[in-house]
Model the fold of this input.
Amino acid sequence: MTRLFISRDSTALSLGAEQVADAFTQHTADRGQSVEIVRNGSRGLFWLEPLVEVETPQGRVAYGPVQEEDVAALLDAGLLEGKPHPLYLGNIEELPYFKNQNRLTFARVGITDPVSLGDYLANDGYKGLKNALALQPAEIVKHVTDSGLRGRGGAAFPTGIKWNTVLNASGEQKYIVCNADEGDSGTFSDRMIMEGDPFVLIEGMTIAGIAVGATQGYIYLRVEYPHAKIALNQAIEAAYKNGYLGENIQGSGKTFHLEVRSGAGAYVCGEETSLLESLEGKRGLVRFKPPLPAIVGLFGKPTIVNNVISLASVPIILDKGGEFYKNYGMGRSRGTLPLQLAGNIKHPGLFEAAFGMTLRELLYDYGGGSASGRPIRAVQVGGPLGAYMPESQFDTPLDYEAFAAIGAVLGHGGLVVHDDTTNLADMARYAMEFCVEESCGKCTPCRIGSTRGVEVIDRIVADVDKAKNTELLRDLCDTMLCGSLCAMGGMTPYPVLSALNHFPEDFGLHPTKA
Amino acid sequence: MQNYQTQQSTVLEILDAHRTMPGSLLPILHGIQDTLGYIPPAAVADIASSLNLSQAEVHGVISFYHYFRDTPPGKHTVRICRAESCQSMNSKALENHAKQVLGIDYHETTADQTFSLEPVYCLGNCACSPSITIDDQVFGRVTPDKFDSLLAKFKGA
Done:
């Protein structure tokens, strides 16, 4: 039986993958051809989705982008034997965009059936857990510390230190919470992992639970990701059935339970303390810190709160050791980061690379420049709270410290590309407006500052007391930066000030007087 | 608007099913909205008494989260992404087009109760902006023309 691979990833589905899969089922049945269609994750080369791969003796041969009306012609041309057709791409793993990545966390995504435990086990799945079960808790934490892994959610706090705090905290009950509230525009790596390899997240959380003595985990998932929820729940069910979750995991005597909880469309719940409030059934108001969630977290108990990619990076660290992971990267940014190319870009997709490559390499060598063919004017890195970087900064290496040094943030690794038709004063105003919309309201700089920010930007653009209002905007940004309780208000000044500093002409300001 | 009496048994069943769950309020609200399409204001009293909360606390949670609604939606809910990636691919034009074609603004429902229009901030589909969802289906690279043909398809469905 010939095996075909057609993605079940949301982006592939949004471009017609379901209809393509249905058409293959229909047409091959009509022709009496025997095929099995595997619904895999996405390889992340989204300009080629819907992508169809066929398993041949020479390896997996790809065609794309395929629409349902192409299916008959593809079968006529001999797709099942991997024969040529105008949509023929050859072995997708040989394309530079795929070949030149360092796929550690995303090793299986796009390759396996995401909800098949058999596929997972056949592709190095649960090797990390097996090793972890043979170690003492402190030894597991040491591997994570040695790997140099820092939180991939944005704050980049060392994961091993967080785990160690929870390990040493006293408490009968501890929790592992996965922050799957990926709400930053331009990011989709969490979604791709959860849809494309949910077991790797489940395994990472299970290892975390065993490392610190937590028996219950929650995945707080954004409601905007219905396909991720389906995949996670299917994988969790399979893990329970086969002794990878629940009581006495793989005969070890260890217990770990896991449940998916849905958010309800509040961006601020991506902030860890708001998320905990939300999980407890309350409004997602930010908590004061200290106490840290590692000491007083969910329901008042010691809690690890980690991002999806952080937790999904743990299985390979426990499989191959902290040193193996640490050998990728530069400076204090170790391992790999799944970068996400989005917005006005010719080749959008997911590119997992070791820290250190430059923005320019990524944008032009792999991203292929803008989708519109116009010059790239600005790139917002790290989500809606990240800075707008002008062309003069494109040689910055992708490294937490290098970005911090120029007042930018790498965050979750999302890049949103804008061509020269984008007005950066509009984007600065939108950043403030987004903060108005999404502020939890607990602290004044964020709640009131954002509303005043929209008004001040409007006055600058309308040429009302321009110099005075520009000074006022900077003052306001300073107050928000220093006085907000969390990153919502505290980082909204990043896009605003970067737009003002690098693109003053869009505010009607003289370039040298901004 | 439906009479709450016909909905109350559903609400009570959902409350009963979540009785032992820690932090159950959001799962309960999702359960009610999934089943009824919205959270009837009259249900707040039942939820509050079941969870031993004040009605103000329950109302405060419902109103805090963008996803929850307290009025019935149209037959189909259209969500348009307003975030940066979609803006970089001219989602503003798509938003204006959608509002004009539907004859409504955000948070409104067409007079024939067919479509509700909501903004959304990122669908994680940023690799093919602009994106929208209609009910649970996501669509990428949505031009005004594609929007019209999708609307026609759902109108018939």
Q: What stands out?
A: The longest strand of chain B covers residues 76-81. Residues 4-64 of chain B form one domain. The first helix of chain B runs from residue 4 to 17. Chain B touches chain A through 42 residues (CB under 8 Å).
